[in-house]
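Handout, page 2. Input:
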Amino acid sequence: MPREEQKTESVLQKTTLKGHRGAVNCVAHSSSVRTNRTSSGTSSCYLLSGSDDGTARLWDLRSQRAALCILAPACEDGTKEVTSVAFHPAGGDSIDTKTDDLDGTSEAKGYAKNMSAYLSVGSSVYGYDLRNAVSPIIREYDSDLSGALECQDEVNQIAFSFPRKGSNSGNTAYIAAANDLGDVRVASDIVPARASPESRSKTKKTIQRCRVLQHAEDGAAMATCTAFRPRSSGLDLASGGTDCAVRLWDVMKPRRPSCSMQIASDDAGAAQVCNPPMAFDLSWSPSGKFLAAGLGDGTASILFMQGRSMLEKCRLRGGHSSSIASVLFPAFGCESSSHVAANDRLLISAGSDGAIMFWDLGADVAGNNAVDPSSWLVGSDVRTSNIDQDLAALALNDKKSQHQQQARILFGIPHNEKINFVTSSKSNEPVLPSSLFVADTSCDITAYIVARK
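Output:
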């Protein structure tokens, strides 16, 4: 085996989750769920996925098998593709250890999980209290948010807020839904109450009427993505759309955005000259100071929050030959610094060209408090094999370039399937830590476990 490929294999380990029968559109990791049973560590061992096959599946990462399969309700036209999934950030009350399937061997009661899953199908959003699960197949939802959100067109992405004591929004969790009509609808949400199997289908939740954030007027463009801002003093949310715009909102003042950024076409991307920079995905840095937008022209825009304004800090070019489907400031990062901005330098982009790129935004962009990811990330000094040579030439492959201050590619992964979405686990997870989970047009989910120094 060539020496270069041996180096590459030491950088990443790979595992695959098999079970879906259609393209996988979305994934979410349960590390965002806060439960009363944090000492057991079991709450962070799950992955939620949604597929064109009309199901959402809860994967037990310990066994790498689907623990639960949710059969999504069909739309009026018969379609039932799951377009987005999310865990509610609050898991709910504790459940008895005998009813939590710690070993994967217990019977009916062992299917219950101390978390709630949400998914979008067509213009509807449904919630499932997984503490109610009594079999591996779930057919009934516990809450239907369609009446509260009142989306008039297909939902592209759902997202939950980050509850934080002392904020203007209190401890209430909000759910946002970006849809094809060009708006983002936000409703306050309560974790579905635990109900008996006989009564839960009859129970309807009461949720306050939603706030409508009009990303594009009169449906002139689709709202493709949305993300709540972490560490916000209020309740800030970003939206992106096919109008090549990114907007920042104060949800409590929904009439107009706090600011907007019209993304300019990138003349440097000759291969993408015909593709406008539509915003397909958004990701906030851990500090909430930076917002990354994955764009249709194969670039990523890094926006800096200056008060209530957005400034384009830099444009990441040369990583992809087609549109960027997903961007992510990963949950895993530097462990040597507790500074709020320590992990603002590492960004991952995933494209419809099948390539995954790890970027160091550099000190010039992220600031001096952000830690250089090449100081802890194995692979930042090797060239990944099978990546297009023009892209590989941009990767760090010598020690002289490891401390440069500008944004650059650390390394790439040739995933070789058209990517739909990515998410990650934290570095301290008991199972598959520091992992990147990839949903693509195949029926499988791929997990790349990143090596640390």
